[in-house]
UniProtKB/TrEMBL annotation, chain A:
The keyword Manganese does not apply. Keywords: Cell membrane, Membrane, Transmembrane, Transmembrane helix, Transport. The keyword Transmembrane helix applies. The chain crosses the membrane at residues 6-26, 33-51, 57-77, 89-109, 144-162, 169-188, 200-223, 230-249, 255-274. CDD domains: TM_ABC_iron-siderophores_like. It is found in: Cell membrane. This is Metal ABC transporter permease. Belongs to the ABC-3 integral membrane protein family. It is a multi-pass membrane protein.
From TrEMBL, chain B:
Keywords: ATP-binding, Nucleotide-binding, Transport. PROSITE patterns: ABC_TRANSPORTER_1, ABC_TRANSPORTER_2. Belongs to the ABC transporter superfamily. The keyword ATP-binding applies. GO terms for molecular function: ATP binding. This is Metal ABC transporter ATP-binding protein. InterPro entries: AAA+_ATPase (IPR003593), ABC_transporter-like_ATP-bd (IPR003439), ABC_transporter-like_CS (IPR017871), Metal_Ion_Import_ABC (IPR050153), P-loop_NTPase (IPR027417). Gene3D superfamilies: P-loop containing nucleotide triphosphate hydrolases. Residues 10-242 form the ABC transporter domain.
Length: 298, 271
């Protein structure tokens, strides 16, 4: 049963991360996901100091605020101060993450958090921390409930804003010209990334979050030309990596989070080699036939 | 020479735009007539794209304002369409030609709504107008430059607007596409639309546009093409660089060496 809970947790985290990652990599902003996943740390610590619990919704709020603050800072450095985008990302998130680390070490006695947990996660402990009602009924691991709610929120967000997210990602200029607010959708997307990161960090850790934001969408991107298919495929890849990673970790008796990231990377490598359109070993026959020739045949 | 029109569709007043506190457009006062094909001409860095972006409210202005149909831009947003520069998007994006053209309908659809049959028909209709119906399911990365431009044009057509702003629609397209596009723009004008085109080729400008705006950070000229495109104003717009240009043009004409294909022979899109 523990295996089931662990794989389910990783799969839920993978679903959220992969879906949002599709938009991030197409906006050439994958590293913003990286930045947010680290920069939310001070928000988590501060919220934890106030509430004394990691399960409180305030944690999500505190971290979410810091996530949005990160994107604001990156945009500010990039647009107003005219620092290169990647440099702006690098400065912002290392700074915020370091503040988080200092806060943890300052309040080490009061905070049940440590750097290792933040970076690598403790997915093996997920089944231990259960939500048990007052009447003694066992509702399963608490993480499943948090991650499950966040997954539903992300699915709703993408379902409702599909058109707007698609258009602002592809062509922000045209979107703005027809009256769709590009900055609104940008910050909504970044808030969603922050929320996902926080919900996932406790169980899977910041490093796996980065892997799940980038690797499954890249794999899907190599395999399809259709954006909807890309969204679906990236979730599938994320779930396969979660299950595969768990069994790999059991086999090697190693870290589960790291094994998941390794499997995600391997899947990406396979897609790179065998992609029908861009792969190294693609077949000649899959090259598209010019439309003119198709028309002549008709 | 700046001709102001009565009942303009676009009115620009005292417009100044700057990047990094450096002005790129300075004190533009401009009125443009409706139902016409308008060219914005000037050298590189003259602020041509900046002008149309400022009119559409895509970039912040330092001072002044632009009005469309004598109203704030927000009130008439649905009547205005935009064809951005081809290079402004990533053509490796996982989308089909049809997906991109359907985006032209997004503004009318609103949040929560999915495209209905009317939207799908409008998208296919627009693709037919630019002769790309056979490419509807193509992935956009497989298109040539001219085909990409036609797709962008189809997306604007699908929006069924009244005013179209186009940023360098003839840049890097083949001659067949260029002729087909100008043919389409003329049909649109004859149907009562107003089309404002950022353009860099002087020779074709003479034959393409009813109205010409000459721009080089400041407004140099605005009026009917025949009146505005004269030696004096062109020199003011381009500085010394133009003498070389005109000489080359005269030389070509003397040798009766056609610089451009005869537009009458151009392949036309089927309608």
């Amino acid at each position: 049963m523990d295996a089931f809970w662990i794989i389910l947790t990783a799969s839920l985290a993978a679903t959220c991360c992969s879906l949002l990652g599709c938009y991030l990599i197409l906006r050439q902003m994958a590293m913003v996901g990286d930045a947010i996943s680290h920069a939310v740390l001070p928000g988590i610590v501060i919220a934890y100091l106030f509430t004394g619990s990691l399960d409180s919704p305030l944690i999500l709020l505190g971290a979410g605020l810091f996530g949005v603050l990160t994107t604001f800072l990156i945009e500010f450095f990039h647009r107003k101060i005219r620092v290169q985008a990647d440099a702006a990302i690098g400065v912002t998130f290392t700074w915020l993450f370091a503040i988080g680390i200092i806060l943890i070490s300052l309040f080490a006695g009061q905070v049940d958090l440590d750097q290792d947990c933040v970076l690598y996660g403790e997915i093996a402990y997920v089944p231990l921390n259960r939500w048990i009602t007052e009447s003694g009924y066992d509702l399963g691991p608490t993480t499943i409930w948090t991650l499950g709610s966040v997954t539903i929120l992300i699915l709703l967000f993408i379902g409702i804003g599909y058109k707007e997210l698609f258009l602002t990602t592809f062509d922000a200029g045209f979107a703005a010209a027809i009256g769709i607010s590009t900055s609104l959708w940008y910050y909504l997307l970044m808030s969603a990334v922050s929320l996902t990161t926080v919900a996932a960090f406790e169980s899977v850790g910041a490093i796996l979050v980065v892997a799940l934001i980038v690797a499954p969408p890249v794999t899907a991107y190599l395999l399809t030309d259709n954006f909807k298919v890309m969204l679906g495929l990236s979730v599938l890849v994320g779930v396969v990596a979660s299950a595969g990673g768990y069994f790999l970790a059991v086999m090697l008796n190693g870290s589960i989070a790291a094994a998941i990231a390794v499997v995600a990377g391997l899947l990406c490598g396979l897609a790179f080699l065998f992609s029908p359109t861009q792969g190294i070993f693609r077949k000649r026959s899959t090259l598209a036939e010019p439309v003119d020739m198709q028309l002549q045949k008709q | 020479m700046i001709v102001q029109v009565k009942d303009p569709v676009i009115e620009v007043h005292d417009l100044t735009v700057s990047y990094d506190r450096k002005p790129v457009l300075w004190d533009i006062d401009l009125t443009l007539p409706g139902n016409s094909l308008i060219g914005i001409i000037g050298p590189n860095g003259a602020g041509k794209s900046t002008l149309i972006k400022a009119i559409m409210g895509l970039i912040p202005v330092s001072s002044g304002y632009a009005k469309i149909y004598d109203q704030e831009l927000k009130a008439v947003r649905q009547q205005v369409s935009y064809v951005p520069q081809r290079e402004s998007v990533d053509w490796d994006f996982p989308a089909s030609v049809y997906d991109v053209v359907l985006m032209g309908r997004y503004g009318k659809m609103g949040l929560f709504k999915r495209p209905v049959k009317a939207d799908k028909d409008a998208a296919m209709d627009a693709l037919t107008k630019v002769g790309m119906q056979a490419y509807a399911n193509r992935q956009i990365s497989q298109l040539s430059g001219g085909q990409q431009q036609r797709v962008f044009l189809a997306r604007a057509l699908a929006q069924d607007a009244d005013i179209y702003f186009m940023d360098e629609p003839f840049a890097g397209v083949d001659i067949a596409t260029e002729n087909a596009i100008i043919e389409l723009l003329r049909t649109m004008r004859d149907n009562g639309k107003t089309i404002i085109v950022v353009h860099h080729d002087l020779q074709s400008a003479v034959e393409y546009f009813d109205w010409t705006v000459l721009l080089n950070m400041r407004l140099v000229g605005s009026g009917p093409t025949a009146e505005v495109l004269n030696q004096e104003l062109l020199e003011k717009t381009y500085g010394g660089k133009l003498t070389v240009l005109t000489k080359v043009g005269e030389l070509l004409r003397k040798k009766e060496f056609p610089a451009r294909e005869n537009p009458a022979k151009a392949t036309k899109w089927k309608r």
